């Protein structure tokens, strides 16, 4: 396959900390071996990777991020392939897991405790999930309009958390259940958005159930403090990026 490929999304697509680092703006965290680069290399696409760590659906559609234009502006109508991994930052999915992993006593601190409480508030999370449902559909509609000849694939998130009944230390059971509920809902909403807007759906979450961060063969990383030069905690590792690339190549082969 040949043609232009544009990769859109957040850190779950960018691959922060996976070496070697791609040439990209400060803070983008793009890896030269993230799934977009791997797919482009294998299928001879001309890649425009505009994924950016911390991106929301608004950063994809309309809002600048750290001085860079909305990601959607990378589309010019000549694309053969567009992939999209987005939505978790709208909800605060990974931040809630970071909050859950901090020592319990931090929740009693005056300012930090209030922030952690907000991140772990089930009602606030439910409101955010309701909002992101339409945001994901808007992404699908806008990408389809701007890249009418492209194969457009929503790629959902790799599974981070283990199944119910399996510990995810230092996260406690209640927080893990909350995180799992958010992840499951994001997975479903991504699939719904793909179906409703005529896009494809690459089911990375389903393919990685047994490769969660606490498994013996993880495709993602566990909770921890960020360390420069290392793969970001609670994010895909190199094996996970290879697995997602395999899924995308297989999906394109089916097409």
UniProtKB/TrEMBL annotation:
Against InterPro entries, the record matches this protein to: SEST-like, SGNH_hydro, SGNH_hydro_sf
Q: Name one GO molecular function term.
A: hydrolase activity, acting on ester bonds
Q: Which residues cross the membrane?
A: none
Q: From what superkingdom does this record's organism come?
A: Bacteria
Gene3D superfamilies with a match to the protein in the record: SGNH hydrolase (3.40.50.1110)
Question: Pfam families given for it?
Answer: Lipase_GDSL_2
Q: Does the keyword Nucleus apply?
A: no
Q: Where is the active site?
A: 11, 235
Task: Cite the SGNH hydrolase-type esterase domain residue spans from the record.
Answer: 7-243
User: Which GO BP terms, alphabetically?
Assistant: lipid metabolic process
**Protein keywords:** Hydrolase
Q: What is this protein called?
A: SGNH/GDSL hydrolase family protein
**Source organism of this protein record:** Mycolicibacterium hodleri
